[in-house]
Design a protein that fits this description.
eight-stranded antiparallel β-barrel, Cyclophilin, 345 residues
Length: 345
Amino acid sequence: MAAALGQPANDLEAVVTTDLGTFRFEFAPDKAPKHVEHFLTLARQGFYDGSAFHRVVSYGIIQGGDPLLKDDKTPRKLWGSGGLNQLAGEFSDLKHERGVVSTVSIPGKPDSDGAQFFVCISPQPPLDGKFSAFGRVNEGMDVVEKISQSPNSAADGFAEKPVRILKVTIEKKKVEPFVTATLDELRRTVTMKTTLGAIKIKMEPDWAPNHVRNFLKLTATGWFNGTAFHRMVKDFVVQGGMGNTRPSGAAHPADRWVRTLKGEFRDDVKHVRGIVSMARADDPDSASTSFFLMLGPAPHLDGKYSAFGRIVAGMEVLDTFEKEEAQGESPKRRLEIIEAVIDPQ
C-alpha cells in the first residue's frame, strides 16, 4: 500500500509523544491496509494531538485516541465514545501480542472501528480475530508500560487522570546500522572507554561477520554506553554488555534491534589473551549483546564461542582489570563502559 507523501507505509512509523514519554510503532499494511491509511491520514492532520490515553490496564493494555478527551470538560461517562463508526473491520492472523497496536470498536457492533486505538503490553489472545491489528511498537515499550501503570478506577478501568497525547507524528522508519554492510565495510576498529582506561578492538569479520555486524550496530547507536562489566575472573575473562546493568536498568532506543545470533564458531580462532568473543547461554545460538575480553588462554572455548575481534591497543587495561577487587565473580565497584565509538576510517 502506498501511503501519503509517496512513501510506502512499510517505510514509516508513528511517533507518539505523551506526558510520560515517547514510543514509536511501525505499521502492518499487509494486515490492515485501510486502518493503516486511516491512522496515517489522521495523524498527519494533527487529529490525535491533545487527546489522551483514557483507559489503562496495568501491564495489560492502554487505550486512547478519542477526540472528546481534548476537552478537559468532557464528562467521564463519555470517555471512549468519540471517533468511532468510521471503518469496517480488517481481521487477520496478526496476534494481539506484546506491543501490537489495534483498533477500538463498539462492543457488539460490527464495522464500528475508527480513530481510537489500543496497545497490548501483554498477550491478549481473546482479542485475536475480533479486532483490527495494524501495527507493532518497536521502540519505547517501557513508556507504554509506564502509561499502563497510571492509577485507574476499578469501576470503569478509566485512568484517574488521562495520560495526555501531546503529539503524534509520522516519520521515516529508523534504519538499522550495518545491516547491509559488506565484509570490507565491517573492517572497523572500536575505541571503548572504560572506568579503567581505553581499549581499541579491531573487528574480524572473516571470523564472525554477523557478530561483527551486531557489535558495530550496538556501538554506532550508543547502546553499550553506560553499561557495566558485571563479571570478572582472573586469568580468564572480563564480561560486559548487558542492558540491565545500566543505571535503573534503563531501556535504550536501539533495543528494537537486539536479537539473538546464530553461532559462528571456528576451531582455528583461539581464545587467547586480548581476543574479544560473545557470551551466550547453553543454546549455541543465544548470543545477543554480552561479550567478553580474554585475560588468558581458554582452549575449551575454541569452536564453541563466537570470537569476533581482538584488542590492538590498551592491553595494559586488562592488567588493571585483574587488579580490581571482586566478590566472587562480580567486581566490588562499578566498572563501566563510559563510551564506545567506531574509529574514523
